Amino acid sequence: MAIPIDSAAHGRVLLVGAGPGDPDLLTVRAARAIGAADIVVHDGLVDPRVLDLAPASARRISVAKKRARHTLPQDSINDLLVESARTGATVVRLKGGDPFVFGRGGEEMEALRAAGIAVEVIPGISSALGCAAEANLPLTHRDFSSAVSFVAGQCKGLSDQNWSGLAGTGRTLVIYMGVATAPDIAEKLMADGVAPDMPVAVLERGTLPGARAIRTLLADLGAMVAREKVKSPAIIVVGEVVTLSDAEDKLARWAKIAETMT
User: Fold this and answer.
1) In terms of domains, do 94 and 120 share one?
2) Residue 171 domain flag
3) What is the pLDDT of residue 26?
């Protein structure tokens, strides 16, 4: 049962999804939760305008994470949430996208439950949904794709992961946190049977100022990320639905390369 936002009860944690970036994509319930917070523990990518919804008296604690460098390790974040709630505070754990889509919200929920802390999850628009919508890229389409898979591109032992069947004709693959490993991802997918000329889109800084949506072929993914100097945050979308998007078209230039590889 959801914990009422306007309840007088304290000593609880709300795991809140802040959406893909644009404050206008924050849900009404998320905005109400932030407005009721005594403490806001937030990711580094949360827009300052979202943080401004918290009361002026609320304590703001950044636990920003970047590749290979965390302000706090996850266990320490879990402990921070538990100890903050035990002071009697209403704690908002504010996470980019959705807490349960590569947000480690499940781990935090487990730690809070184990400590006897009341916890509620308020979903947010995930990066995949928000960024794809901005680029007019349908993740499913009756003529092109009836299945979608989400994977993390930073996972350890990428070459050992079984991605067979996740991408290809009739399917869409969305890869989070894959910019740094884009060349390896392309090699992995092609080794697992995905055609080198499969369309791919990279959605950089989706819904934020300076957003870019660019597309090419799978065989060119790693080179294109380097050539275009793509930076995180970005997601990679693999599948025929990419051809329907408004992403800047880099496909034609590489069509002849793909022909020689198939």
Assistant:
1) yes
2) yes
3) 97
**Pairing mode of beta strands 90-95, 39-42:** parallel
Q: Does one domain contain both 135 and 119?
A: no
- Can you tell me whether residue 246 is helix, strand or coil? coil
CB 17 within 8 A of CB 99: yes
The residue from 99, 125, 151 where one domain ends is: 125
Q: Is the per-residue pLDDT at 262 higher than 70?
A: no
98: amino acid identity, one letter = D
Report the catalytic residues.
43, 65
Q: Residues with Cβ < 8 Å from 156, sequence gap 6 or more?
A: none
| Domain count of the fold of the chain | 2
* Maximum alpha-carbon separation in the chain: 67
Q: pLDDT by residue (tens digit) across 92-150?
A: 999 999 999 999 999 999 999 999 999 999 999 999 999 999 999 999 999 999 999 99
Do 214 and 234 share a structural domain?
Answer: yes
The domain of 72 spans 12-125
pTM for this entry: 0.87
d(CA 253, CA 231): 22
Residue 2 to residues 5, 7, 15, 82, Cα–Cα distance (Å): 9, 11, 12, 19
- CATH number of the domain where residue 102 is located: 3.40.1010.10
In the DSSP assignment, the letter for residue 43 is -
pLDDT tens, 30-83? 999 999 999 999 998 899 999 999 999 999 999 987 655 556 899 999 999 999
Does residue 242 sit in the same domain as residue 133? yes
Separation CA 97–CA 158 (nearest Å): 24
Q: How far apart are CA 124 and CA 203, in angstroms?
A: 19
